[in-house]
Amino acid sequence: MAGNSRQAGTSVTSRALAILGAFDEQHRAMSLSDIAERSEIPLATTHRLLGELSRWGALDRLPTGEYVIGRKIWDIGHLAPAETGLRQVAEPFLHDLYGATRATVHLAVREGTEVVYLDRLRGNQSVPVVSKVGGRLPLHATGVGKVLLAHAPGEVQDTVLAGLTRITSYTITQPGTLRRQLRQVLEKGYATTREEMTLGACSIAVPIYQGDQVVASLGLVVASLKGSEQRLYGALRVAAQSIGRRL
Predict the structure, then answer these.
(1) Which among 6, 42, 53, 240 would be 20 to 30 A from 108, CA to CA?
(2) DSSP string of 72-98?
(3) Where is the IclR-ED domain (predicted)?
(4) Does the domain made of 5-70 have the CATH classification 3.40.190.120?
(5) What is the reported pTM?
(6) Segment 130-177, tens digit of pLDDT
């Protein structure tokens, strides 16, 4: 069970951390009673701590009464050395890439079975984009996600392939088809999507290496890849290699 207070101790700090630890990918929004149950903290104590955490900004309360992780946690997370270093190193190259393509630029990493967007430069084309900095999207339906999934451990791939969800009529939901695409990503060096996350939006993405390890993905979102796939891939590859060298 997440955030077990008996293991963490009985101090106020340990109980607050147990409450935060009760949230995970399957429990992003929870009621007071759910949080108390998962953190194994008495209901009255949970209620008091939720109020304090909410006032500080660690949690937000939805109109439904459920609690979600607050923006303050994300702001503090930006101070983590690995993420901060990656974003700082990548920033000038993201702007160069945007200047060369005028497309929406994404910098993303994998967390579990999802893509987490570290940075985004919005393109000036009228292309629907659902990503946001700090937001999460499925690995199997995004360009940056497919790159990260292709380089992920086998158990991560198996988990994702076992639960493919359809987002648009073009989303790949057949495990065999997606496995073939992931092999092609490794062979070609880049991934593409065609309206698989959002109708009217296509994407292309490449890995960013630190040494021989893929640490992030760099992607572009455009209205269509027809006639421009190789040109965009070339621009992405140059930017990703430059970022990798700086890392």
Answers:
(1) 53
(2) HHHHHHTTSHHHHHHHHHHHHHHHHHH
(3) 72-247
(4) no
(5) 0.70
(6) 888 888 999 999 999 999 999 999 999 999 999 999 999 999 999 999
